[in-house]
Amino acid sequence: MRIDDVDPATMTGEQRALYDIYTSGKRVAPDSPFTLVGADGRLLGPPAIWIINPVFGRPLQQIGSAVRYGSQIPARAREIAILLVGHHHKSAFELYAHERAGAAAGLSEADLAALADCREPVGLSDIESVVFRTTVRILDAGTVTDAEFREATELLGEPGLLELTTIVGYYNMVAWQLAVFDVQPPAGVQPPASDVRPPA
Question: What is the value of pTM for the model shown?
Fold first, then answer.
């Protein structure tokens, strides 16, 4: 990482309030597929940089919480969208976290391999399939056609398509932040070889 980790012992009150969100509740449940807190108590991934500016960090974690715990889009479909964004940006931390979350949601190794190649996995549900196609289209074109909009809203509803668009936009933003601050997965974790960024 291009900045020093924030030591929990030296946090401001606002930083501590944000830190406490990541060190309690659902995010640290034993069945959570990945952690955002290191063994030394310091934050990992996006929170490791959000903590430097809690005015922005707090609303960003609220969006992340809504995506992870409040979305009406089924977990497998949601992870398909997130992984497509992660592969689009070759974002090592996003892939570290969401390959684990995707597997926990039921994506197989074959599914994960297909997503790494931007191929639609075999046997997706109708909702998963439209999430795949819509996400790919948004990543490629920044929008959808009228026909694609109708197809997506028929299966997801207008609120669901808003959620999907927000998920894609949120994880694009996160990938950019992780890249700019060079945030990597925990030590010893290797992302797929095809998704490792070449040295700058």
Answer: 0.92
